[in-house]
Write a structure and sequence with these properties.
Elements (H helix, E strand, L loop, with lengths): L1 H5 L11 H14 L5 E6 L10 E4 L3 H9 L7 H8 L4 E2 L8 H12 L4 E8 L5 E8 L4 H10 L1 H23 L11 H11 L4 H7 L4 H15 L4 H10 L6
Antiparallel strand pairs: 1-2, 1-5, 3-4, 4-5
């Protein structure tokens, strides 16, 4: 059920400061069996560095060298996240080209060999990444550990994005987005989705067709500018449009 999977992360939706987000996220990362993490979010892909939100415990020397060398332009993980919403698991094969070999060696020098990165795409064009590292004996074990918890990690991603958007808002001095309006039917359908119901189950509960339910979900995702139902649930909860 979505509500059960999301419950451990609901406190993230109440966070308003970077220090709170750092402490809460570190606790969740460790509970999930990961080590270090880094959250980066900016108002857009081309935003000035001073507007970036950067939270985590990746080594400072690693971050400084990454920025100094301009590795973001060739980093396969970063490039993947800019064009995709799917997570990407770190592997040696990603850094096989000579140009990227130095980036791989830099990560290894700081103990970051295995992990996963999630793309963060905000409703007003915000862009960022959430990276989690873990210890594993080899890539096969790393992939197994990550995939075993992928559903929970995707919930964490959605909750973290909402918390980060709230924390970053004062930094960008942006006017708050217009309140999203949902119809009563959309709220009803979204709430049942939060409890883990499928389109077919919701159609029976609400006495309508499954196609009608999917139509409402399409409108809901469009209003929130998200690509998944779980992300819509997180946004609705953070804006107190629904309760579970």
């Amino acid at each position: 059920m979505i509500s059960q999977a999301l419950e451990p992360f609901l406190d993230l939706l109440c966070i308003t400061t970077s220090n709170e987000l750092m402490a809460c996220l570190k606790e969740r990362v460790l509970q999930l069996g990961f080590g270090r993490f880094q959250l980066r979010l900016s108002p857009s892909r081309n935003a000035h560095a001073c507007n970036h939100l950067v939270i985590g415990d990746f080594p400072q020397a690693l971050r400084e060298e990454y920025e100094r060398a301009g590795y973001a332009k060739i980093d396969p993980v970063q490039l993947h996240c800019m064009e995709n919403v799917t997570p990407i698991i770190w592997s040696e094969a990603l850094f096989s080209s000579p140009q990227r070999l130095n980036l791989r060696e830099l990560a290894l020098a700081h103990g970051l060999e295995y992990g996963v990165t999630f793309a963060l795409h905000g409703p007003q064009g915000q862009f960022g990444t959430l990276s989690l590292s873990l210890e594993a004996s080899d890539i096969d074990q790393a992939q197994w550990l990550i995939r075993r918890q992928m559903g929970t990690l995707l919930m964490l991603r959605d909750a973290v994005l909402q918390a980060a958007l709230r924390v970053m808002a004062p930094m960008t001095r942006e006017v708050p987005a217009t309140q999203i309006k949902l119809t009563q039917r959309e709220k009803e359908i979204l709430r049942w989705s939060a409890f883990g119901k499928t389109s077919w189950e919701i159609s029976n509960i609400c006495s309508c067709s499954e196609a009608n339910v999917d139509f409402h979900f399409k409108n809901i995702r469009r209003k929130f500018s998200v690509s998944s139902r779980s992300a819509a649930v997180v946004q609705a909860l953070s804006m107190h449009l629904i309760q579970i």
